[in-house]
Amino acid sequence: MSQQVSFVGAGPGASDLITIRGARLLRHADVVIYAGSLVDRELVRRYAATADVYDSAGMTLDEVMGVIMDAVSAGRSVVRLHTGDPSIYGAIQEQMEALDRLGVTYQVVPGVTSAFAAAAALKQELTLPEVSQSVIFTRMEGRTPVPERESLSRIAGIGATLVIYLSVGMIDRVVAELLAGAYSPETAAAVVCRASWEDELIIEGTLADIAAKVREAGIERQALIIVGDVLAARREGLKARSLLYDDSFSHGFRGSAIG
After folding, report:
1. Using an 8 Å Cβ cutoff, are 140 and 152 in contact?
2. Could you tell me the sign of the dihedral formed by the alpha carbons of 151, 139, 126, 231, in that order?
3. N or C: which end of the chain has fewer CB within 10 A?
4. If you average pLDDT over residues 3-12, what whole number do you get?
């Protein structure tokens, strides 16, 4: 942890969901650059009360890099604070490439991505035996293009649990693309807005009605869409239980109770 520059995942929103390592780096940072449009300012106040703080919401990449390099030149430590986990739609690759070109070492500290905060809010396991053993993180094409092979309708053909980022403002298009795949109007769906924040909002339904419910709630951003048959388990019951704790299932740490 000796690197002068640290990319830190802030977690999904709640200020106490940052990792211990991330909080420690913030406490010792001289300079903090945080994504103010997504990261709660309270988190910065709590853990980096004495740092020089920059809100990157209105900054360009060159401006961000300028602040980082000024700090590095002065021998000061920098935390670049990103929402959720930096590796999921974090836009950190171009920053790391710039630091590589400049010969500046850095580290990346993972965080809790909003997908897992949303699952926790729903009290829902995203993988269930005989229902879905795969979770796909994806997004709808908008201003940022998506490769054709990863179009939502193609991915929807798999039928796995989908966690769809950055797309709630296009909920009608999302539903249309999903219905072109392996899902039906009866497929369970949920939208979690601002997962883990104090004003968290959960909308549950099916692909037949989720878009109307989202519009009625006025949700246009900062929300995840989760789709898949796993979401129906609480209502319909489990199709099968995990073998992990079954008394007839043996593994390296436990023998079978049935001879």
Report:
1. yes
2. negative
3. C
4. 93
